[in-house]
Design goal:
This protein is of the alpha+beta class. Among the domains are: 139 residues, no CATH class; 199 residues, GTPase Activation - p120gap, domain 1 (GTPase Activation - p120GAP, domain 1), CATH 1.10.506.10; 100 residues, no CATH class. It has 31 helices and eleven strands. A four-stranded antiparallel β-sheet has the order 5-7-8-9. It holds the Pfam family RasGAP. Keywords: Coiled coil. This is Ras-GAP domain-containing protein. InterPro entries: RasGAP_C, RasGAP_CS, RasGAP_dom, Rho_GTPase_activation_prot.
């Protein structure tokens, strides 16, 4: 349906309901117009450009929500397999464990498995409506589960229970759950420095929340251009660590002269490197440029405040509010350090440091830009988190930071202190401004009320999500619902024991209709609203809503100002469209009733209603442009999320290829326990079959560069056309990459590669493979090997 219910959410009015005034009269009518329009004429879809644009935007948001969940699941799979592959790398995994890992890679088969019966489905429908509409239960559960259980629960909470990331009711309920979790975290904190720092279920929740669609959209729109413009300068070296600068300097001198002068020994301590005049001369301009780059990132982020997703700003607001209550003596700088700990360290900085993981760039940044981004990140970390007056207290947070940007440990960073000091006030102002958003408590109550009128309140949930949530609730039911008369206890008692987790292949997705057995669905919204809105106001709002719909449906009258409401009603009533005829006749009668009640006056052309209808249409006209702009932005986000999905699937394909290689090198008999050496069968040694050599397969320098496999190359441009690579696999899981120059029989360079080593590099987030003359992208090398050798 295309009506006012499609109006976008705004930070000032989270539900999309306006509180603006058009006249001193009727302010109450206008304030609930959006509410009424959600109910009015629900059987009619307005077909115009705005309606079509809104429908496309809704569909796009739904796709982003669904794809975000798929990516979250894939990322969990990759993390699991990273840890399990480690055992294979060390040849410490038995064959049955290898089979278990292989099953983790199976796709769901829609023909296998079965749904719970109708009675169970109804009970689950009641349970999940209760969990969704009363967030305190989920909030308590998130605090009770272990760190090993939180990811599975977060998948259900963030991407299923509240999976519609752009729907105000679900978003507000999720934020209400966050408030409860944060409040408990602050209540149990024993010291200021421990707040929100450790790797706990709460911190994992906060990080996961920022990875949803709106957060990804913000990062893409704000950081992508800035990061890409930086990494284009592949040779821009902004290293300021004196030891590294000194090492680079003497390497260059040695290459140019063939030897080192006696006054430049190798392996000097940091203080000697820092005192070297040449090192100081190299670092000085780099410091200036680094500060300029950091400043540009800072300005970009500060200027983007209005684009920060409402939910992220609201969490910042809760952190500030809870800190002030718990620690009334805390300085503004100390409070901002906690806000910055969430906004920068958990949201902004990971995207700056690993932009490829957030799909903000294509491929892995080259060596120098990658180091620059790390320095920018450290810079940002510092002035967002370590400028508090209560420095001694906040210093305790250092140990819990991912990169521990402690200036005590990295003395050379002290040279950036002037920049830090100059920006303290500005960054604190920004963090405080982030917190200035309205609350949604009043509108949430109305959101809940409207939910009772929906016939399509559904979630799409896998069987294992159902059963896992059921099981976790049963484990903690005494804490969650100590009274056996409470609704949660009644529902869990009726459900009984939780079914076991089904095999991955049978983990089908079910559509779960949500409804409450204790609350009566609203059949007639108009009648229900009569309790809180007078009958005359109800009549006025419905009349105005119908006129807006008529004008939108009759484009030829839209440009005629002022609107002649009587003529518009008459025209609609005499068209050939049965729907418009019905509306025209109805609204003519409604005008007459309003005139009898002396709410509007025919003699002035129904001026009051005419003005309000005109204002609504102006708003809808502007809204169309906003909808189109938002759609364009989210199209890019959706493409990014899909690209990330393809990247994750590529990683899983590499694991499949690796497991296949393990099976090839191991015996087919059950006696085999490793993929290496002689295997035993029935107590007798059996020599493995002689492996077949695959290759060589030839690739040019240009091919590998175009595919992004070559990240950096030291080969002169004029020689690159003569360079090619031969890749051979002498045994499953092992490879030889040979670099050749045309006309020479012998390879210039050969490197032996083992799939184990490559997977371990990827697992440790080491994305570069150094072949002396070129540096290769590890994930893309794995992809190439998988593509070339797996099916041969």
């Amino acid at each position: 349906m295309s009506s006012y219910s499609d109006l976008p959410t705004s930070p000032q009015s989270p539900s999309g309901m306006s509180t603006r005034r058009l006249t001193n009269r009727n302010t109450n009518r206008y304030s609930v117009t959006a509410l009424f329009s959600m109910a009015a004429e629900q059987d009619v879809e307005v077909e115009d450009e705005l309606g079509r644009a809104q429908k496309r935007l809704r569909d796009l948001k739904s796709k982003i929500s669904a794809q975000s969940k798929r990516n979250f699941v894939l990322e969990r799979d990759v993390r699991f397999l990273d840890s399990r592959i480690g055992l294979l790398i060390q040849n410490r995994m038995a064959l049955d464990e290898q089979n278990e890992v292989e099953k983790h890679l199976e796709d769901v088969d829609a023909t296998e498995g079965h749904f719970p019966d109708d009675r169970k489905m109804q009970q689950y429908s009641n349970l999940f409506f209760l969990l969704q509409s009363e967030p305190r239960h989920i909030a308590s559960l998130c605090r009770l589960v272990s760190l090993s259980e939180i990811d599975t629960l977060l998948q259900t909470v963030m991407f299923t229970l509240y999976g519609n990331q752009y729907e105000s009711r679900e978003e507000h309920l999720l934020l209400t759950m966050f408030q409860s979790v944060l409040s408990s975290q602050f209540e149990t904190a024993t010291e200021f420095g421990s707040l929100l720092r450790a790797n706990t279920p709460v911190s994992r929740m906060m990080t996961t929340y920022t990875r949803r669609g709106p957060g990804q959209s913000y990062l893409k729109s704000v950081l992508a251009e800035r990061i890409n413009s930086l990494i284009e300068h592949k040779d821009l070296n902004l290293e300021i660590n004196p030891v590294k600068v000194y090492e680079q300097m003497i390497i260059q001198i040695e290459e140019e002269t063939g030897s080192l002068p006696p006054n430049l020994p190798r392996g000097v301590p940091p203080e000697v490197a820092a005192a070297n005049p040449d090192v100081q001369a190299i670092i000085a301009p780099r410091l200036t440029m680094l500060m300029e780059i950091a400043n540009s990132f800072l300005l970009t982020i500060i200027d983007s405040m209005e684009s920060v997703p409402y939910g992220i700003r609201w969490i910042c607001k809760q952190i500030r509010s809870l800190t002030r209550r718990k620690y009334p003596e805390a300085t503004d700088y100390a409070i901002c350090s906690l806000i910055g700990g969430f906004f920068f360290l958990r949201f902004i900085n990971p995207a700056i440091v690993t932009p490829q993981a957030y799909m903000l760039v294509d491929g892995v940044p080259a060596k120098f830009p990658r180091r620059t981004l790390t320095l920018v990140r450290d810079h940002t970390c510092y002035y967002s988190c370590f400028h508090s007056d209560a420095f001694i207290q906040i210093a305790k947070m250092l140990q819990n930071l991912a990169n521990k940007p402690s200036y005590a440990k990295e003395a050379y960073m002290i040279t950036l202190n002037p920049f830090v000091e100059n920006n303290k006030a500005r960054i604190n102002q920004f963090l405080n401004n982030l917190c200035e958003v309205g609350d949604f408590y009043d509108t949430l109550e109305m959101d809940q009320y409207m939910a009772l009128s929906k016939k399509d309140l559904v979630i799409h949930i896998t069987l294992n999500e159902l059963y896992n949530t059921h099981s976790l609730i049963l484990q903690h039911v005494e804490t969650l619902s100590p009274n056996d008369k409470q609704h949660l206890r009644i529902l869990t008692d009726e459900l009984g024991a939780a079914p076991p987790q089904v095999p991955r292949k049978e983990n089908r997705t079910v559509e779960l209709q949500l409804y409450s057995r204790w609350e009566t669905p609203i059949q007639d919204i108009q009648s229900a609203l009569m309790d809180s809105v007078s009958s005359s106001d109800m009549l006025y709002m419905e009349t105005k809503s119908i006129f807006v719909q008529l004008i939108r449906s009759l484009p030829q009258v839209a440009d005629k100002r002022p609107y002649n409401l009587q003529a518009i009603a008459e025209r609609a009533a005499t068209t050939k469209d049965a729907t418009l005829v019905r509306k025209g006749i109805k609204v003519k009668e409604m005008l007459r009733e309003l005139e009898e009640q002396k709410i509007i006056d025919r003699s002035d052309g129904y001026q009051l209603m005419q003005d309000e209808v005109a204002a609504e249409l102006v708003h809808l006209g502007n809204l169309r442009e906003k909808v189109i702009a938002e759609t364009k932005s989210l199209d890019a986000v959706y493409k990014t999320i899909c690209d990330h999905n393809n990247y994750l699937r590529g990683q899983l394909e590499q694991y499949k290829a690796y497991l296949q290689n393990v099976r090839l090198t191991a015996s087919k008999d059950k006696g085999a326990t490793t993929g290496v050496g002689v295997v035993t069968v029935g107590g007798k040694e059996k020599k493995p079959m002689k492996p077949v050599v695959l290759g060589p397969y030839r690739f040019t320098h240009a091919q590998l560069e175009k595919e992004g496999i070559i990240v950096e190359s030291n080969v002169p441009d004029n020689r690159r056309p003569n360079i090619y690579f031969n890749i051979t696999s002498p045994t499953p899981g092992t490879f030889i990459i040979a670099l050749h120059y045309k006309g020479r029989e012998k390879a210039i360079l050969e490197m032996d590669l083992n799939i184990d080593d490559l997977l371990e590099k990827q697992k440790d987030n080491k994305h570069l493979l150094d072949l002396e003359y070129v540096q290769l992208n590890v994930p893309k090398v794995l992809g190439l090997l998988n593509k070339v050798f797996t099916k041969r």
